[in-house]
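A note from the maintainers: we've had questions about how concatenated examples are separated. There is no special marker in the raw files; a new sequence line simply starts the next protein. For clarity in this README we add a label.
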Amino acid sequence: MNEANTPRHVVITGAAGALGRAVVQHFLVQGARVALIDHRMDHLTASFPGLDNSQHLLVEADVTSVPSMAQAARGILSAFKQVDALIHIAGGFEMGDAVHALDRAAWDRMMNLNAWSFVAVTQALVPSMIERKGGSVVAVSAKTASRGLAAMSAYIASKSALQRLVEASAAELLAHGIRVNSIAPSVLDTPANRSAMPNANPAGWVSTGVAAETIGFLVSPAAAALHGQHLTLDA
């Protein structure tokens, strides 16, 4: 392991999910200290029962809440002193009504989970990166963010908004030595997706391991020239 090329302190939101667990494993193998954020502590303790809490952090926080994320960031920075990489995985998916019948609550739910959460999370942790003049931020957007599809308007709009936020943030933080990018998977091969789509063929889906490796690439020096990009993952 080359310590100079490895993020030493990594914050991961949505850590207890299927992709989150794969990303956590990737960075643990790299020797990083990780701060794992989920909206419920019991999800974290169930997902990471053997994690060394003297080295790593389990943090319960609401990624859509500015005060909750600010409190989480204070604890993380007190323990870690710095954040080298911020991986924002937390989000949500749901099918919905046609645009002309869309419910405002469904719209707000998708926008909060998938777009506003990026603002709340980066607002809490990016200032410490600016102070250090370095770091990398990776969000999880979606391949479908590129065009509208029936019965998915709120979800796709929120992931498209997330991509525009990533691009804007990349432009704003470039001068501070901070890179901001996203991965844009098609369908991730997770237990939840297999359960939701029992008749689909998962052979063409993207494994969480591959997605985790791609995130690892984006925070590595090999991706130093990538700013505001969305790497489409498609098997």
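[label: protein 2]
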Amino acid sequence: MARKNSDASVGPSTSKPRWYRQLWQAYRMTREVDPSVLWWMLTTVVGTLVVFLIIGIFTNSPVFWLIMGLPFGVLGATIILARRAEKAAYGRLEGQPGASLAALGTIRRGWEFGDEPVAVDPRTKDLVFRGVGRPGIVLIGEGPAGRVDKLLESERKRTTRVLPTVPITTIQVGHGAGQVELRSLPRTVQRLKPALTKQEVAEVSKRMRALGATRLPVPKGVDPMRARPDRKGMRGR
């Protein structure tokens, strides 16, 4: 029995990574893209301590208020890291084929997105991804404004022929006029107003799976299923 217990004690650990290790990983990833993140974090901590020190001077208890201000300074620095980590994560995906699908992967519930594009322009490599949720069907186009519009419109007409009564929203991802930036894409999709019941969403999803997707693969580049931003890492948890 003693031998079995000793064997078990030296076995591989299945515990989750410590929060400070996740925080360090988020910081390292962010610093590769945004070297100024350290200075922003230090400025936040120092600025917070200065504010609390001023309060302490006026109340004749500077040491007490400095101690009180330290956790608030650390919290502020963590928030700065989380925001810059999110920006850095999307910066890594920017311009990569399938980046929009990776960004949409941060939506936890309410939407179903296919793993492959439903339309691909083999010449320009423009892509269209499709999602189904309570607001209806959303078509996400990757490509320059004006060029990807034709691909989106073609897919919209194709979908309308199958489900003529279901609302269809088209969104272009990019920096052009009328396009949505990659980092704003999940929020834009989540803000769409519901128009279907859960039962209707299930039926639409079933019809869409039967409709299928394009047979052409995603162009070589980042794997959307592996490039989804780490939400825990972004938040430093």
